[in-house]
Amino acid sequence: MRSRAAAAVTSPAATPNTSRRCQHCGSSLLFIQRVFQTHHRKPPTATATSNSNPGNKTEMTMLPGRPMVAKCAYISFCACFGTLARLYTDDIGPASNVALQGSFLANSIGSFALGALASSPDRETIPDAMYAGLTVGFCGSYTTYSGWNLRIARAALGQVSGAPSGAIVTIVSMATSLAFFAACFSAGCDVMKQIASHGRRLNIRRMLGGGALAGGDSDAVRNTLGMLGAVYVLLAVLLGVDNNWSRRIDWLACIFAPFGALSRFFLSRQLNSRLRGGAFPLGTFTANVLGSLVMALSFYGTKNSSSLTSGWSNVAIKAFQTGFLGSLTTMSTFMSEVVGHRDRHTPSASYIYLAATAIAAQALVLIVGAMLK
Q1: Domain membership flag for residue 310
Q2: What's the pTM value of the predicted model, to 2 decimals?
Q3: Do residues 224 and 70 touch, judged by C-beta distance below 8 A?
Q4: Measured between alpha carbons, how far is residue 322 from residues 226, 286, 330 in Å?
Q5: Ramachandran region, residue 42 (left: φ > 0; alpha: ψ -120 to 50; beta: rest)
Q6: What is Dmax (Cα atoms) for the chain?
Q7: How many domains, the chain?
Q8: In this predicted model, what pLDDT tens digit does every residue of 34-43 receive, in sequence order?
């Protein structure tokens, strides 16, 4: 009986059913394993090769958001120095020199510098974080659209002594200034291309610190954030111990500057490609027009208030204007987009973008100035 029972258990008739059940169980286990792996997968990491030593092939792990942190830190760090450089460039020459008012000289130099950086043969060797700091941070904050636009509007309203007023004069002044800034950007491109044609390289990366601050790895992020923190501590100390009210405006403006530069950076990042496939950079347009409007409101809304034109209130308002709004708006990036669109898109797209920005910003400031003067 036992042998028959054993034979019945292991008989060929029972084997197919058992085999099917085993296959079904195996398939179910495999499916569960795949689902588990899908929902419990580790977050992806990127690797970066150390740039400080070309012969070192050691790979360093960095989180996906780390390059953006490094880029923002570099933009903030360079925006402080770009704003400070603009403030001291504006002090060149006598205060009565109408031609140098409205950051005209800073806009010219900054547009030239951005053109040189954009056409540099070292562009491919410059890490993205460093390049963003130089272009968006330094050049973007060294130049300003809102300050220049306010000066043009005040001249049109007859509020600038020694400057001609009137609609025709305003249009001619705007057109010649914008044409000159565009020429400065093109000149920067041509000069750098001419240098490259002679086989010379500036090695911008080495000049600005090499691999220690270059990439998105943790060391670069820590170093850049550390330097930014040190700059903020120094500015806070200077703001507290310096008894000169004019210099206090400069120190506080440098503290506000990174917030304006980062706001412009994220506006451009989110909006520039939304309209006409990037032919109309909506982010830069929004930053320049909105910044010009807020500049006019803050200037005309506070100039007749005695409580806001002295002491710390005056320091805070002027630092907000020159620091945050001065860095939120930019002339160099505006010129790079206007000139660049002639090559990437069509000349008509370039002129439409130029005219829309100039007319919208100037019209809003003239309306505010006429109502609140």
Answers
A1: yes
A2: 0.78
A3: yes
A4: 25, 18, 12
A5: beta
A6: 123
A7: 1
A8: 444 444 444 4
